[in-house]
Design a protein that fits this description.
Layout lengths: L28 E2 L10 H16 L2 H6 L7 H15 L8 E4 L2 H13 L4 E5 L6 H8 L2 E5 L1 E2 L2 E2 L1 H10 L2 E6 L13 H14 L3 E4 L13 H4 L4 E6 L11 E4 L3 H8 L12 H13 L1 H24 L12 E5 L6 H10 L2 E2 L1 E2 L13 E5 L6 H15 L18
Parallel strand pairs: 1-12, 3-4, 3-7, 7-8, 8-9
Antiparallel strand pairs: 2-10, 5-6, 9-10, 11-14, 13-14
Helix pairs in contact: 1-10, 3-10, 4-5, 6-7, 11-13
The chain binds pyridoxal-5'-phosphate (PLP).
InterPro entries: Aminotransferase_I/II_large, HTH_trans_reg/aminotransferase, PyrdxlP-dep_Trfase, PyrdxlP-dep_Trfase_major
GO molecular function: pyridoxal phosphate binding; transaminase activity
Protein name: PLP-dependent aminotransferase family protein
Length: 403
Amino acid sequence: MIPVADTTPASMQIQAPQISEPLHESSLVDFTRSLPPAVPRLDAELARAIDRLRSEHDLDRLIHGGAARGSSSGRLGGARYLAPRLGDAIDIECILTTNGTQSALLILFHHLVGKGGRLLTERLSYGALRELAGIAGIELAGLDVDGDGILPESFERACRKGGVRALYCNPTVQNPTTAIMPLSRRVALADISRRYGVPIIEDDALGRLHPDATAPIAKIAPDVVWYVMSATKGLAHGLRLAYVVAPSRAQCDSALAPVERLSFWTAAPLLTAVVASWTLSGAADLISEAIREENAAREAIARGALGQIGLISKPGSMHVWLPLPAPWTCDSFVRSAVAAGVLLRSAEHFAVDNQPVPNAVRLSLSTPSSRRAAEVGIARLAALLDRRPAAEYQEERSVPNPC
Ligand SMILES: Cc1ncc(COP(=O)(O)O)c(C=O)c1O
């Protein structure tokens, strides 16, 4: 199987009617990475924003300058970007601009958890979490979940045991299971957090793409939540920008203090200014809307093809979760999918500790460069699921899992 490089200019990708675009039979369809689909208007909006910044501001200042926590205009842009989820009364002195969620989490792990401390999270969680925890020298412990996310009693049990420093959770279209936590559960988690003094790190990476989803825990209980939202899902991956909203100014200052003189985590002022400009011009909403539409089209295709066999997804979700029917196992399915020209991630990739994982895989529908490619990949998987695993995949094999 030969991966075919996508040489289509970004401005020409994802244009209707994509469904009729040819896809070479040998093209590999990659559902592994969680990148937003490229939307055609992005190029033009970027050029317009740079023009605006050139005429209104000082591009020189943006290229040469930069304050650790981000400029006030950049943070104001952040407040506007987050407003659909958090409302419009965000104190910009509680906002930090970082170069992505991973940097934000490293700062928060250092500040809230500390070396050797324990961080609770969903049993299956954001795939980068294990590596980040390793770098930060913290321990991850997986909480019990059901189809609605973390079970509050599991959180409370862990808090009662002691030794817990914080909870990380992703309650809106969870990665990887797509769970959306209901309001009552968000309220219950906030209540437990307050009673045991265990702060919550809420990762709302996809929140802007689901503006009607249940309110973030940070909106319900801003006093105990460190809210993180990346612009990489709602706008473009290459922006490398994520906003952190601290529970208070004082707590924001304390988190900042140890890293104030370091630059590995800071957002690029120019890109922060581009996003701030997009939030003023309305482009940010238009770009997010275009991503939302593309995600919705792809999710509908996946639901149509795989819904009957138990696909778990939410309308418009960027990724979907596929429990595998017996006799398929994660290993046999991932190997057979590779042979059929599809890359995906098995549940194991998302495990935060050594507890058993479900027999399921995640498909990031947004990664293929066209809707047609996503559709072909889904059709290949549906055809695979119509068959039994090949004999050689039914036994344990020593070849490492390609995912
Ligand atoms: C749960 C979650 N948070 C955040 C991110 C984005 O991280 P970053 O802002 O570093 O691009 C992802 C990307 O896959 C994710 O799945």
